[in-house]
Structures are given as C-alpha cells and as structure tokens.
Design goal:
CATH superfamily of the domain at 148-228: Outer membrane lipoprotein wza domain like
CATH class of the domain at 148-228: Alpha Beta
CATH topology of the domain at 148-228: Outer membrane lipoprotein wza fold like
Structural class: alpha+beta
Shape: elongated
Largest sheet: 5 strands, mixed
Strand order of the largest sheet: 7-6-10-8-9
Strand content: 15-25%
C-alpha cells in the first residue's frame, strides 16, 4: 500500500521519525537481555579544598602584610599579627592601644610602641619563657596607622594619608588628586615638628614640575602637614 502525504515537509518529518524508531530498535537488540538501561551521565561537581583543622599546630592561616618603611617603629593604632609556632591558641591579631600597649592572652599587657617588630618579637619571647619551654614567635605588621601625613587646603582630596613608603611632597599632592584651579602653587608650606618645635619648609609647585629647585621636593616624615593655600 502506498501512503501519500499532503506535502513534502510532512513527508520528511515522518521519515525522520521512522528512522529514529529503527535506530532505537537496533540499539535495544544489541543490549543483553535483562540489562538495565544505561544511566545518564552527570558531570561531577567540583570539590572544595579541605578546610584547615581548627586548633592544629601545623596549620597557620596566611597573614597579609604591608611594606615596612626603613626605620619603622610600631605606633598606636597599628595592627600586628602575633604568631606562636605550634601554639595557635595563643596566636592573635591585635591593635596597639593609644597607650602604646598590646593585650595578649598569655602575657596580658605588653609595651609595643616605640619598638621595631624584631625588638617586640625578642621581648615577647623572653616574657613567654616563663610559661612555655621553647617559645617561637613571629611578629607581622598587618596594618600601619601610626605613620600618617596630612594635606589640607586647595587640593581635590584633603585629609590624612598613610605613610607606608618613601613619599615626597609632589607625590602626596598627586595622591590627593592634584591642585585645584585657584590654588596658590607657589606658596605651599610643609609644617614639621622637630625636637618639640614646629618648623616650616617652602614648596613651589610650579618650579618642581618645571624641574627647577628640585631639592625643595623633600621626603615627608610621619606627622608632616602640607598646606596648599
């Protein structure tokens, strides 16, 4: 018997359907009798790395550090990471208080301001020997807040800036977004405290950017204030 289709498109659709049925029947014939249908394959989800075991003496969480300027000494508001090797319960991150001390679980209050990180490490090791047989301590500076310089006046972003590396007057002005349109760049003043007294330094922005009198582009020190009239 011949079946006539009303259109060529319907004929092609039926032909494809018939071919699919024939192919499925052939596959079923090749599968052993009674065998279960092949399971669908689902991609395995990526496994997360195992979390460190809390309290394990050999696992220490990574600690971020900041660049330490030459001659850096610890000051108030700095954040330190104190790490006791194989004594993670004693390890902690601590901020230096306004009185210059830090509070630790084992040693209570310890003077930290005015010391380098290495000097503080030695002090902590000496004091910890009263409680631990062989203390091994690391002092890491995580955040520096005690070293600041200030810029005020006709700049885009006046305020305090952390002094974490060597910074000149011109660089600080750039960090502050540059001078405003009506700033008096010829009469910028740097105020600094030396030996308990305030001293001032002049800075001519126009000269420096013209590569004249470059010695006035001094390196700033903690506590300096740059005034842009």
């Amino acid at each position: 018997m011949t079946v006539k289709f009303p259109s060529k498109s319907i004929g092609r659709t039926v032909a494809v359907a018939v071919a699919g049925v024939v192919f499925s029947t052939a596959l079923a014939a090749q599968r052993p009798s009674g065998a279960p249908p092949a399971p669908a394959v689902t991609p395995a989800a990526p496994t997360a790395p195992a979390a460190p075991v809390k309290g394990s003496p050999d696992v220490v969480a990574p600690t971020a550090t900041v660049p330490i300027p030459p001659g850096y000494v610890i000051g108030a508001e700095d954040v330190l990471s104190i790490r006791y090797w194989k004594d993670t319960d004693l390890s902690t991150d601590v901020a230096v208080r306004p009185d210059g001390k830090i509070s630790l679980q084992l040693l209570n209050d310890v003077e930290a301001a005015g010391l380098t990180p290495e000097q503080l490490r030695v002090r902590l090791m000496e004091q910890s020997k009263r409680y631990l047989e062989d203390p091994n301590i690391t002092v890491i500076v995580k955040e520096i807040h005690s070293r600041k310089v200030f810029i005020t006046g006709e700049v885009e972003r006046a305020g305090p800036y952390p002094l974490t590396r060597s910074t000149t007057v011109l660089q600080l002005i750039a960090l502050a977004g540059g001078l405003r349109e009506y700033a008096d760049g010829k009469n910028i003043v740097i105020v600094r405290t030396e030996n308990g007294k305030s001293v001032t330094y002049r800075f001519n922005y126009r000269d420096v950017i013209s590569r004249k009198n470059l010695d006035q582009n001094i390196e700033l020190k903690p506590g300096d204030t740059v005034i842009v009239p």
